[in-house]
Amino acid sequence: MTGLAAPTLSKWAPPKYLDAGERKIAEMPHPQILELDGFRAIAILWVLLLHFVYGWAPIPPAALSGVPPIVVGAVSHGWLGVDLFFILSGFLITGILVDARGRPNYFRNFYARRGLRILPLYLICIAVMAVAYRGQAAFFGLSLLFMANFAHYFRVGMPHGPGVFWSLAVEEHFYLLWPLLVRFLRRSSLLGLTVVLVLGTPVLRGYCSYTGMDIVREIYVYSFFRFDGLALGAILAMWVRSDYYNRKMAWRFAGLLVGLAVLITLCALPFGVMQAHTVASCALRSTQAQFLFAAAIVMALAFRGSSYTAFLRSRPARITAELSFCLYLIHLALGDSYYSALHAMHFNDIAHFGIDGAIFVRSLVIGTAAFGLAALSKRFLENPILRLKRYF
To answer: Which residue ranges make up each domain of the chain?
Structure first.
């Protein structure tokens, strides 16, 4: 993921009819929406937790019998953290584009700033991993073209660690198309298009699943099956910049989103929406989660700066969010290196530590290494390069 630089509301003015409390929050001098750092932290930690538990050696179901089922269920759904990232990315990118609409060098500035944010670290990761994962030149060639998510279409194998590049490719395809649409479509037309994407993409996923497309290697990763989360984030960005951005409307908006999620669940439950690899779950599981995520973000935006959202603005959340891009790109590859080292030493962590111990040790080792490298990358690579944004 791109890690999401903190979005701003640079051209937004609070509606005149806000009450005193709402106006005080809306007119806060800090341009960043710091609450989004909390959501970014949740997204990356959820993905990391999923991979730390399930990312390598298979775990027999009986091994987790002592863990509360609700905890096992939450961890096993860590893949939904990517959907949360997509919503945040759609919010950020649409906000940047809407605020810059009509300014000189609209396209140049946008693509230059995105390039500075993404390319240096991404290209270094490709170079290092191409050396570590020998024999995967075709995949890394696709990755250079931001086509990693279409590896299956080109009959190219996807190595485990660099496999995370697929989601970055989805975002880059969105970045390719969306600036053009934001620049030339009316706000109402843009909103209509986002609604069509949010409602139509699940239908497309369901239809293609029904016709036999591979759920994991095609439907889950192909860009046109994932644009609904980005479009939902775009809707939130337009709402924040409208006269309807206030707490009263936020409650209604969030209620609508939660109601839709519940309605989808009740209507699709008989068709296996809560089961793995059914047509209904392929079509609608992401949609269920996206509506709930969006509802939470709506309320955080409405109460930004208040005590209710303080935990989202906490220092640990902000640090984790700042490191999220690098963490996402490197954590699986670091785990592969960890297990390569163990195998070279003929050491079986599960046999030695037990499953619980193996999970704890690998989480500690890989997590520490990932956060350490991400911090070094942020200080010595990403931050110096990001200072060049001021020229665009």
So the answer is: 20-263+290-391
Residue 19 has pLDDT above 60, yes or no: no
Residues whose CB is less than 8 angstroms from the CB of residue 276 and which lie 6 or more positions away in sequence, other chains included: none
C-beta separation of 59 from 362 below 8 A: no
CA separation, residue 86 to residues 90, 167, 193, 322, 324 (Å) = 6, 9, 17, 16, 13
pLDDT for the residue 1: 59
The sign one gets for the Cα dihedral 123, 124, 127, 131 is: negative
The residue to which tokens 């005193």 are assigned: 20
Among 7-16, 64-73, 359-368, 381-390, the range scoring the smallest mean pLDDT is 7-16
CA angle 177, 181, 185 (to 5 degrees): 170
Closest-CA residue to 170 (of 235, 93, 224, 233): 224
What are the counts of helices (DSSP H) followed by strands (DSSP E) for the chain? 14, 0
Which residues fall within 8 angstroms of residue 250, CB to CB, at 6 or more apart? Answer: 298, 299, 301, 302, 303
Torsion of CA 358, 38, 120, 365, to 10 degrees: -20
CA 281, CA 268: separation in Å to the nearest integer? 8
